[in-house]
Amino acid sequence: MNFASDNVYGIDPRIMAAVTEANSGTARSYGADDLSVAAEAKLSEIFETPVRAFLVATGTAANGLALSSISSAFGAIICHAEAHIFCDECNAPEFFTGGAKLLGLPGRQGKITPALIESCLKSFVRGEHDPKPMAVSITNASELGTVYSPNEIRAIADLVKPRGLRLHMDGARFANAVAGQGVTPAELTWKAGVDVMSFGGTKNGAMLLEAVVFFDCALAEDFSHRRMRAGQLMSKGRFLGAQMLAYLEDGRWLENANKANSLARRLGAGLADFPALRLYAPVEANEVFALMPEALYDKLLNSGVVCGRWIAAGVDEGEALVRFVVSFATPEDSVDRLLSLLPEIT
Amino acid sequence: MNFASDNVYGIDPRIMAAVTEANSGTARSYGADDLSVAAEAKLSEIFETPVRAFLVATGTAANGLALSSISSAFGAIICHAEAHIFCDECNAPEFFTGGAKLLGLPGRQGKITPALIESCLKSFVRGEHDPKPMAVSITNASELGTVYSPNEIRAIADLVKPRGLRLHMDGARFANAVAGQGVTPAELTWKAGVDVMSFGGTKNGAMLLEAVVFFDCALAEDFSHRRMRAGQLMSKGRFLGAQMLAYLEDGRWLENANKANSLARRLGAGLADFPALRLYAPVEANEVFALMPEALYDKLLNSGVVCGRWIAAGVDEGEALVRFVVSFATPEDSVDRLLSLLPEIT
Amino acid sequence: MNFASDNVYGIDPRIMAAVTEANSGTARSYGADDLSVAAEAKLSEIFETPVRAFLVATGTAANGLALSSISSAFGAIICHAEAHIFCDECNAPEFFTGGAKLLGLPGRQGKITPALIESCLKSFVRGEHDPKPMAVSITNASELGTVYSPNEIRAIADLVKPRGLRLHMDGARFANAVAGQGVTPAELTWKAGVDVMSFGGTKNGAMLLEAVVFFDCALAEDFSHRRMRAGQLMSKGRFLGAQMLAYLEDGRWLENANKANSLARRLGAGLADFPALRLYAPVEANEVFALMPEALYDKLLNSGVVCGRWIAAGVDEGEALVRFVVSFATPEDSVDRLLSLLPEIT
Amino acid sequence: MNFASDNVYGIDPRIMAAVTEANSGTARSYGADDLSVAAEAKLSEIFETPVRAFLVATGTAANGLALSSISSAFGAIICHAEAHIFCDECNAPEFFTGGAKLLGLPGRQGKITPALIESCLKSFVRGEHDPKPMAVSITNASELGTVYSPNEIRAIADLVKPRGLRLHMDGARFANAVAGQGVTPAELTWKAGVDVMSFGGTKNGAMLLEAVVFFDCALAEDFSHRRMRAGQLMSKGRFLGAQMLAYLEDGRWLENANKANSLARRLGAGLADFPALRLYAPVEANEVFALMPEALYDKLLNSGVVCGRWIAAGVDEGEALVRFVVSFATPEDSVDRLLSLLPEIT
Predict the structure, then answer these.
(1) What are phi and psi of D326, to 5 degrees?
(2) Where does the pLDDT of residue B15 fall: very low under 50, low under 70, confident under 90, or very high at 90 and above?
(3) How confident is the model over D152-177, as a mean pLDDT?
(4) What is the mean pLDDT of residues B69-84?
(5) Do C95 and D25 make contact, defined as CB atoms within 8 angstroms?
(6) CA-based nearest distance C128→chain A, Å
(7) Mean residue pLDDT across chain A
(8) Which pTM does this prediction carry?
(9) ipTM above 0.95, yes or no
(10) Which of A320, B272, C55, D47 lies 20 to 30 angstroms, CA to CA, from A98?
(11) What does the alpha-carbon distance between residue A327 and residue A1 come to, in Å, rounded to a whole number?
């Protein structure tokens, strides 16, 4: 019963097969191979617009590199106070941007709103003593398993883009956000005003695979230099290209996300039935956040349930906020066992 | 007949098998998995001393991160003027170190010497107007396919370490350097004074696998933060750990290197027989550098030989310096066909 | 009636005289001149311990350089959410440290407490996904015109130094903090656990003069390189040395601070007498913060009072938080006129 | 007899008078004061075109900030191998640009040529493995006391600007370069293709005063943030503005430069008369470089002549390359005494 993270699970066997298959003969190195080139074309197809896409190894690198394309070192980047870039990347955004400042806003359920952003922008009254606000970054699906709708994104874009800011989306769980809403990838990104995104693959079935995808291709002008400088240009790039192609082929990426989302909804509904627990946020992707007595959390751990405590606002003394992440590879049986375990220990 | 680089070839099937095998069940993420832990232990065994080893995705990242552990942003790093860190990494060392200065010395055959380094150190006469010399980086095997012996390394270490500088080795082709000399990994590194190295796997059979290996473990104190900050901590780390274990098991890494070195020697000897060519440097690892008339180089390309022109000192007008890289996976037949082609086109 | 800032006023005539006097003959450049050397010795005398002191041009540079000596690029620096380094330096701390993260805590009256810091430190639960907490920075006198006592500083030091963090003090208004408490410079710094400080001169009578003062001199080892690299080593350094000597001579720095503090207290007491106003924080240095109806603030401006609106927590709708800064050079008459103006416009 | 540097001398008394005069009443801080505003207008007048000018404290800061406006962190900046930015600024250009790479070319007499630059640009054959060439920086007057003519500058600009590179001029001794050639400031800068320059004041009579002057004002868009972030925005900016106005008024800056240049020519001619010495470069500004036997150099030092040894190519064993810098404030008598001393000691 492992709900610790999506990344404790392995690789989609179809992706592994593609990696194995790519291992024959010679190929051009450093991303000039046929598979990497095809991966960019496939992403353009998925997004229904010509994109520039650059494969990298980790989400932290994808975020940092993407942000460095839209914020100068003297810039400010507005995000959620619980965003991965704000909390979980050990100053990587600062590193990649050369020292930009991240401003974390305390939005409900992991999401920031135009009102919060506008209020933040109003605080820039000190001229050059303030950094220059240059970008907004949203995470979709969010760190709390909620999703931004196209309308919500558009509202943010409409606010900030006329003021010269750029919009980034951290899409480490983008597949889950798309799958959960019945919208197209295009509707959830460039059609809603996103300039550049981090497109995640690892959490949803790949081995190590993220992409920086530019919808405003002018921003990508020097990106190949940025990626190289950051040590994110793989010499045997075909093995990233192969992963991406296999991930996107036949809608597998959404198939995997749907599977995880569906199981998460089941888990969420099951947990909500127990009076001792409350859901902290609606289950809109593949994560479930539940508030429970600390004693119950301890019992879960002792019963072999692998899950993690989360830090967020609004948690009472004696209460634990617990995160359950469901992956494409999580056995359905794990959810069933967890739900049947609960009556025994509450 | 592809001699463009070692990285145009794929993955050792035994390493691929290990990656496939690692794909079952759950594992702790971010390098805390059993395979990654075992990989560090295995490296300690290989080096006959307890090392701290951190797996990363690229050689550029390994070099940049290693250098950032031994040079401050106001430091100077002495290396060869044709070193990968100096020529081929798009300011990555400057990025990772926060702006340290690389000083490239023009040593013969891709190697720097104590005399060159001493002369460089003597030029630091400006106090704080100069950067502070903090590190020396050598590449073994070098970019010109030559190797440093333990004695040569020791001589450098004996010069610089009493002056407070640290010694880094870029070992992207370390296996080839070990295999070519009949020495132990320990003799070629910490026993000769190396503090930290970039230990390469990708060029010699892995998919994407490099390690920063610390022999002076105190230098590794904050390295986990450095790696994370640089976006080089893989969430599904087991797939790096699996590669490293399979690479090192049963001496495969040296077996592969021996195979490549041996083929390179055969190629070098064959090329040296042609009066139209001369070897630019002795063949001590898996690369052959040959000077030839430009017209001959063009004929090679037109005949389907994939190889690359190299930039270095001492090349006459009308002459091309051509690099042939032999990998563990280069078919012997490729060498034979190249050598039999030459009489036809010269 | 200019209360906009201490830096709208000019230079103490005695300091100007010293600058003029320094302008004869030749002197060694780049801080090796006799006056700069004497300034360091004088600071050691003032602090009753051998310090290393480096003169720079601005407080932002002093802070950034000092912080870069105690925090790595992957570090976190804890400070007040209204600290100058957090709010007013356009990412300079991030620039000088290479990307360290500042964590701003919401303490009362511009000050942070051991309890707040401890709570912050407890949030570091993510290992290398978090930055490494490396430093605490306090501002004394604070941005809200309050002061830390030696005991308050000691309590912070006792909390954080056993955990390996270093303590920095932004002393842009250090003279006012010393003068306001009847303590010695030593008691307020190294005796209370401060490792390095930014010692301000500009706001209190100098032209452009700040110093980075190290009490833990080992931290200063490479500081001359840091200062040079940041473009803060002045070629005609004697004109900084002359300022510092004249500033410190005969206790002038405290004399100036006492004058400003005393006038500020008078202004604060006077303002507190008006029912329409409330002091936002006690007047412990040379700044007065008053809450007033917005209409009153507008009337002040229209009456020729130069003062500024401040952003802080706890200000009601329709209310303005207004800052009045009193300098050593503020005419007493300005305070009198302001206080006599108020009954007319309230 | 002090020829160590122009910065061992003090301040032009007229500039000191202006600083003193500026010390009355209040003034807006952070460069919004009347004097700073007027200084920018005066520079526009001097250059016969609207410029954006930003006052800073040191030449190293001016250079670093200017370069950061025209090169990204992944860029390459081409300069002379003996340029101040390459040799004397302790990695400051790397710091301010976030890690750009400086490429130092070995031009004769301190100057780089279109041929050298073109050859350097041809070496960029590695795509994103190379940095991106983004800027050329020339020093005028050069570090060897020679000057670039408008035509020489134009030839460089004509080569590099069509390729997207920007042209920077380090004008720490710009006054000497203008004075030595009988050309206008405009002819020597923007009319010849310079985009941005570091305009020096300190070496030629100011206290601490440099300006970053943009001729392509679009490049200055975010410069106020850059300057602030670097700790180079002075709170009492009027004292920089006052210096600049006094420096430029009535052509004093050129008067001072002419005086220094003329004396340097006298010294150069005098030295050239001695068979034991040879001039290393023509005397075109305020510096004289002479080759002499080491023994003679020692005798000079022992006779109380303060001068410095210089490092450059083409110096034979046993020979010293010695730099004599003449300032606006160097007593004529010093030159006479030096020249009359020489026959006694040769």
Answers:
(1) -110, 130
(2) very high
(3) 98
(4) 98
(5) no
(6) 6
(7) 97
(8) 0.97
(9) yes
(10) C55
(11) 12
